[in-house]
Amino acid sequence: MSSKLGTWTNDDEVIRRILKETKTVVVTSLNITTLQDMGYKVIPINPGLAKQNEILHGEKVYSDLQSVSADYTVDMVDIFRASNAAGQFVDEAIDIGAKSVWLQLGVVDEESGKRALAAKLDVVMDTCPLIDAPRLGISGPDDKSSL
């Protein structure tokens, strides 16, 4: 199943590759437990909580992607922001060398998606890993032992 978004089309093979090969996910929200339960290392970004040195579900909260990339190799950036704000995070994902960007349900930014593809990142928009993983029979990353 592929979903059509304007001129953007998600590709199940890309979704499958992201979900199976990703180990470390940075989320631009505080909703991290379900991905953690699937076996992913999930790092939250929230500038306000980062200033307070917060720990959320066992993970340090970071202020931005650049800060995370100083400590971790980032596989996927999971973007929970309005479509008109997603491009900033996509550009940061490109800058830090992330392997993929995943724009959540309702988040579509075709121009930033094109920039990410040009930079050789995998791109998914307007869907959720928690929907696509079970749909594709994926329970988490292929290699959970290196987390």
Average pLDDT reading: 90
Note the main sheet: 5 strands, parallel
Q: Strand-and-helix sequence, N→C?
A: EEHEHEHEEHEHEHEH
- Structural category is alpha/beta
Gross morphology is: globular
Chain oligomer state: single chain
| DSSP helical segment count | 7
Strand order of the largest sheet: 4-3-7-8-9
- Uncertain segments: none
Give the radius of gyration.
Answer: 14 Å
Total beta strands: 9
Strand content range: 15-25%
Gap between N and C termini: 30 Å
Helical fraction: 25-40%
Task: Provide structural commentary.
This protein is of the alpha/beta class and about 150 residues long. It is about 40% helix and about 20% strand. The protein has seven helices and nine strands. It has helices at about 10-20, 35, 45-50, 65-70, 85-95, 110-120, 130-135, and strands at about 5, 10, 25, 40-45, 55, 60, 75-80, 100-105, 120-125. The chain has a five-stranded parallel β-sheet with strand order 4-3-7-8-9, sandwiched between helices. Strand 3, helix 2 (about 35) and strand 4 (about 40-45) form a beta-alpha-beta unit. Helix 5 (about 85-95) runs parallel beside helix 6 (about 110-120). The longest helix is centred in the middle third of the chain and has 14 residues, at about 85-95. The chain is globular, with a radius of gyration of 14 Å. The termini are far apart. The mean pLDDT is about 90.
